[in-house]
Amino acid sequence: MLDVTRWLMTAPDAPLRRETSTATPPAAGRVLVEVAGCGVCHTDLGFYYEGVRTRAPLPLALGHEVAGFVRAAGPGSEHLLGQAVIVPAVLPCGLCAMCQAGLGTMCPQQFMPGNDGHGGFSSHLEVPALGLCPVPNCTDADQDLGGVTLRDLSVLADAASTAYQSLLRAELPAGGTVVVVGCGGVGIYAVQLARAMGAQVVAIDVDEARLAQAASMGAHETFDAKGDGRAIKKAIGAIQRSTGVAGGLRVLECSGSTAGQELAYSLLGPAGVLLVVGYTSGKVTIRLSRLMALDARALGNWGCLPDLYPPLLQLVLDGSIQVAPLVKRFPLDDVQAVLEAVKAHEIRERPVLVP
Asked: Are residue 9 and residue 150 in the same domain, yes or no?
């Protein structure tokens, strides 16, 4: 069998440990994926620096944004051998009551790489075969797939797919208005996807460079979150009225900050919908009765159902969504330095680790 190299988290904020072992043959319904690229997400920082506990015990290889090739397959999954795939960040079992009810992202048996088992900070990882997203006509990790490579597509596993499912859940009326609060790793895809869905897109952030990028990728209007909140809300109201579309504002909170969450909630108007996409352990103060008075809704979003990945992938392959300009590759062996740089906000792009 193949040799597998992993960078293991042994304790919060402790130096990662490099380990090499021999892969065992996958069991029935499981496959071994050779990692082409693994994105580094804020969730990884939460596990590593902030004390968020993984469900699997340490030591553990983090990383849940993975694309690669199936190199070994257990009984019943041999048809996937050699296939290029994106590994969804949440892999439901497909059999339990939650899965059968269409609630697979809340499957109690779900597998999240880098949380429920070893993840993509490694040369290979074993995952369930059910739910993997095939990347058609891809035989090499660096093959040009229309301005993007399989390594780049690793970020579809979470950053782009989370935004995609959130927008679908928002039930956006045709021509309606979407406000994206926080235009970082997830928010910039929310901007692009909302524009591709025909929405009038408003982007809000504290970073001028991110706002400029959002404008270049589809935002019709941008606002600095450090500005006057009432003025921002008034301007957004005027934008929404200008569309002439019935239906409330859709607000995606992607900043994962207490200030961003409070701002996003304050923007809700009649029949509005708030999607909480970013995560923070900080507490916010809101008037919950606002939802009742405005007949509004607030929804959360965890991951993305596997059956939504193929249409999302097609949006990238046909050029509707840009990925390559938003990622930057680093050798897997530099993972320690990359984590430190991301924590220090020294890398603007989404880092993709390449074994």
From this structure: yes
